[in-house]
Amino acid sequence: MAYTPILAADSYKASHKWQYPEGTEYVSSYIEARANNSGLDLPGSVFFGLQPLLRQWAETPITDSDIRRSAAVFAAHGVPFFEEGWRWILDAHQGRLPVEVRAVAEGSVVPFNNAVVQVVNTDPKAFWLTSYLETGLQRAVWYASTVATVSWSVKRILREFWALTSDSPVESLDFKLHDFGARGASSGESAALGGMAHLVNFKGTDTVEALLAADEFYGEAMAGFSIPAAEHSTITSWGRDGEVAAYANMLRQFGGPGRLVAVVSDSYDVFHAVEKLWGEELRAQVLDIGGTLVIRPDSGDPVTVVARVLDLAAKAFGTETNAKGYRVLNPAVRVIQGDGVNPKSIRAILQRMKNDGFAIDNIAFGMGGALLQKVDRDTFSWAMKASAIGIGGHWRDVYKEPVTDQGKGSKRGRLALVRDHGLGLRTVPLDSVPDADNLLRPVFRDGILLAPTTFAEVRARVAETL
């Protein structure tokens, strides 16, 4: 489906040009995550995902074909279409959107209820355009930012238990949460954008579209990595009597010095597989290949199953005690839990491991639906609202203040985001601070991407917040 911002909008946006006060010249709007409804302990949200949309705007100016197609769509759809306005953008601006977008740097963690984006039209004849673009802007920002925040929350949990139980380098955490979410995402685009948002915090993924997106939109040639891994179809195709042969085949095909191979081991009886098949029949091969076997349970209660698998693996392959007094499995064996994984279960699993004397080094996690799909715009109450309107050369405040829900009240006036060394980041009136202090920096103006950021820069900003 060919993209045009004219049709990347809710239907009712097409009629809004005629709904503003006479003489309107400018409309200024902002985007914020109003509240934390996730149940996670978070100081704010990770801002990420605006640049792909801005690149799309910059690279796909409005065309005559877009306008003619849109006019036909809206006429058949039953809503008015401001063709004259779009033709003005085509003729006067060569199809480039006459708006300025300011935003906080991607990868920043911003406390809830603060502006992270501000948008205003730059041509008074396009005053209607600011809010028209809301659909695409919100969709770009809320989803990627929410996934990045959920992923970041897991990194914080992992870091907590790493500090308590591990003496490995902190960089080992980069591969502790693997993205298993591609098949559960609502679309390939969702998998790409959400999977890329996860990679802001980690470097493990099986979502190939995310790698392509990070390269296309942020210039990261290879943002994530994976290893050979079995699934139930490849193991069960050998039959129940051939289970040990299936495992041996995985070692033969993919094992070797320095190599990792993940093998799902619960097709029949995961405890038997760990104790007898891996721990006895194939023990010598596992130890001799010089790499690491990653055993994957995939059913049952995650906390109790992981605890028992670790105990059985420890008895079969042995452990060493690290400097903090916690046991680490023989380097030839590790565990990955990819079923029933979410921030709450990760904390519970790690707490049980700590109680049992096991270091975080022994495990990694795979997260699917809870990472890319079990989020929505209400997870952090994302909203874009008009906050100021310019008429006759003067600005006046615009806001909502519903008596039925104070949480849906909106900010008023043109806004700035500043660093307050006592309170962190906070939103203030734009004219109350020097422009140099405003963290909402111009990133797009009149069809031009102004200050592209790289994936490495985004990752560095997020890392500073851990």
UniProtKB/TrEMBL annotation:
<keyword id="KW-0328">Glycosyltransferase</keyword>
<feature type="binding site">
    <location>
        <begin position="338"/>
        <end position="339"/>
    </location>
    <ligand>
        <name>beta-nicotinamide D-ribonucleotide</name>
    </ligand>
</feature>
<comment type="similarity">
    <text>Belongs to the NAPRTase family.</text>
</comment>
<feature type="binding site">
    <location>
        <position position="232"/>
    </location>
    <ligand>
        <name>diphosphate</name>
    </ligand>
</feature>
<dbReference type="GO" id="GO:0009435">
    <property type="term" value="P:NAD+ biosynthetic process"/>
</dbReference>
<feature type="binding site">
    <location>
        <position position="183"/>
    </location>
    <ligand>
        <name>diphosphate</name>
    </ligand>
</feature>
<dbReference type="InterPro" id="IPR041525">
    <property type="entry name" value="N/Namide_PRibTrfase"/>
</dbReference>
<protein>
    <recommendedName>
        <fullName>Nicotinamide phosphoribosyltransferase</fullName>
        <ecNumber>2.4.2.12</ecNumber>
    </recommendedName>
</protein>
<feature type="domain" description="Nicotinamide phosphoribosyltransferase N-terminal">
    <location>
        <begin position="6"/>
        <end position="101"/>
    </location>
</feature>
<keyword id="KW-0662">Pyridine nucleotide biosynthesis</keyword>
<dbReference type="InterPro" id="IPR016471">
    <property type="entry name" value="Nicotinamide_PRibTrfase"/>
</dbReference>
<feature type="binding site">
    <location>
        <position position="296"/>
    </location>
    <ligand>
        <name>diphosphate</name>
    </ligand>
</feature>
<feature type="binding site">
    <location>
        <begin position="296"/>
        <end position="298"/>
    </location>
    <ligand>
        <name>beta-nicotinamide D-ribonucleotide</name>
    </ligand>
</feature>
<dbReference type="GO" id="GO:0047280">
    <property type="term" value="F:nicotinamide phosphoribosyltransferase activity"/>
</dbReference>
<feature type="binding site">
    <location>
        <position position="369"/>
    </location>
    <ligand>
        <name>beta-nicotinamide D-ribonucleotide</name>
    </ligand>
</feature>
<feature type="binding site">
    <location>
        <position position="206"/>
    </location>
    <ligand>
        <name>beta-nicotinamide D-ribonucleotide</name>
    </ligand>
</feature>
<feature type="binding site">
    <location>
        <position position="377"/>
    </location>
    <ligand>
        <name>beta-nicotinamide D-ribonucleotide</name>
    </ligand>
</feature>
<dbReference type="InterPro" id="IPR036068">
    <property type="entry name" value="Nicotinate_pribotase-like_C"/>
</dbReference>
<keyword id="KW-0808">Transferase</keyword>
<dbReference type="InterPro" id="IPR013785">
    <property type="entry name" value="Aldolase_TIM"/>
</dbReference>
<feature type="domain" description="Nicotinate/nicotinamide phosphoribosyltransferase">
    <location>
        <begin position="175"/>
        <end position="425"/>
    </location>
</feature>
<dbReference type="Pfam" id="PF04095">
    <property type="entry name" value="NAPRTase"/>
</dbReference>
<dbReference type="InterPro" id="IPR041529">
    <property type="entry name" value="DUF5598"/>
</dbReference>
<dbReference type="Pfam" id="PF18127">
    <property type="entry name" value="NAMPT_N"/>
</dbReference>
<comment type="pathway">
    <text>Cofactor biosynthesis; NAD(+) biosynthesis; nicotinamide D-ribonucleotide from 5-phospho-alpha-D-ribose 1-diphosphate and nicotinamide: step 1/1.</text>
</comment>
